Amino acid sequence: FQPVIEDGDEEEEDDAEGSVEGTDADTDTDTDRDEFAPVLPGLPVCQDDPTTRADWSPIEYFSQYIDNKVFEDLATYTNQRELQSRGVCMNTTPQEIKIFFGISVHMACLGYPRIKMFWAKKTKVPVISSKMTRDRFFRIRNYILWKVRPILDRVRQGCLSLAKPERVCIDEQIITFTGRCPVRQYVPGKPNPTGLKVFVLASPNGLMLDFEVYQGKNTFTVQRLGVGAAAVLRMVESVPTGSHIFFDRYFTTIDLLDALLAKGLPATGTIMKNRVPKLCQLPVDKQLKKEGRGTSVSVAGHEIGTRPPLAITKWFDNKPVLMASTVHGKDPEDICTRWSKKEKHLVQVKRPAVIKQYNDNMGGVDLCDRMLSFYRMSSRTKKWTSRVISHFFDVAITNSWIQYKSDSKALHRPSKNTHQYLDFKLVLAEELLESPELDNSCEEKPSVRRLGATHMPEMMDTKHAERCRNKGCKSKTYMRCTKCKMFLCITKKRNCFQDYHH
Questions:
Q1: pLDDT tens across 69-99, in order?
Q2: Across all residues in the chain, what is the average pLDDT?
Q3: Is the distance from CB of 35 to CB of 19 less than 8 angstroms?
Q4: Is residue 388 over pLDDT 60?
Q5: Which end of the chain has the smaller Cβ count within 10 Å, N or C?
Q6: Which residues contact residue 116 at a Cβ distance below 8 angstroms, ignoring those fewer than 6 apart?
Q7: Can you give the pLDDT at residue 448?
Q8: Strands 320-325 and 267-270
Q9: Is the sign of the CA dihedral 21, 25, 27, 28 positive or negative?
Q10: Rounded-to-10 torsion of CA 46, 51, 56, 62
Q11: So where are the chain's domains?
């Protein structure tokens, strides 16, 4: 299986030579096969300049998905919700909603078993309790409500604005929820099988590029190929021509591969045995097992009788694996390392090219799920709308960190200066918490007296004065910044406190 790429493309498979051959005369019905060479469209050029984000803070990455308009609308609809329910306006503001979510992110990072513990006398967390009272937090949490579709559209808009890589994958994702919900699904085989099902388009490094929440059989307009194929065709609407698509056996059909290739999108996926064309004469499982681990056979599309350029490959590892692809086949094979239970040590196993490409590019959605599982905002709730909102806030944070991590690598930023995921979330939570605080006496507008009052001087009761930390100053002082914890002097001739913070 040797694809031919149009001019201007740079694929490693261009240098592959040789046609697909069977393992021996018994397992291959035709050893003298013609070379299979589909003509594929050119790959898209990924235009993304990380230098434009060199000085971005976590909240600037986050604002690509959740901007100030989201917080303004959340405040408006939360006030309306309580007014309709109780006849009293909460008078919350966008700044307070920011603080609310900053507290929620901080709570997710610390992981106390009960929310009330963050305000309890023995387990109090000052960074949280000083920003909002416990009763106020629960009041906002109880009435925070918004139609889910607008926030989904805003997060999706941020995902669509990202540069698309050459290879993308499509898979299912579950928003865990066991309460009442009109679109709740049960998906067996998932770690958390009950909840809202989301079809996700992601890059191999876990960056979410597009998504669609499944709402039943009317979610997709095109239904003739089935739900799985309809989901793929919906996801690839935002993918440029020439991108390579990867998906698993739930989605893969011959008709879907044909439809994608007609759009200029080569695709690869595992395929169910009952979806393989009957004309495809592949050896039985027992025969491959007899020949040993690493045995593979590939059959080209013109021998199967299908219309699109297609190769179906069967590979035996611990068990048989069936692959269908319009761009990759058996050759060129490489060697992979596997554990042998029988021999009790690692062994070298031959691996077809299609298996290698699938393994390298298919795990993006699973990686995204893994990142979402760390420090998730998953407090108990009976409202599916609240669970969906918190899930997509977590998606925005995860996407922000993955993009930040990629930028750091591209900019050759030292590891010691690059935030890990937990540190990134804590910095983001602090930036959200530093929004102007409300005056509790009126709960309508932030007090001008307290606006931005985070870095304030305080006089320390110490035995000896400390050296001023401002660059170039050798004076000693008893004055320290309440936020930075740095000793800085303020004198008639020199204001190191102001110079340091500017």
A1: 999 989 988 888 888 888 888 889 999 999 9
A2: 84
A3: yes
A4: yes
A5: C
A6: 134
A7: 43
A8: antiparallel
A9: positive
A10: 0
A11: 4-44+151-366, 51-149+375-433, 455-502
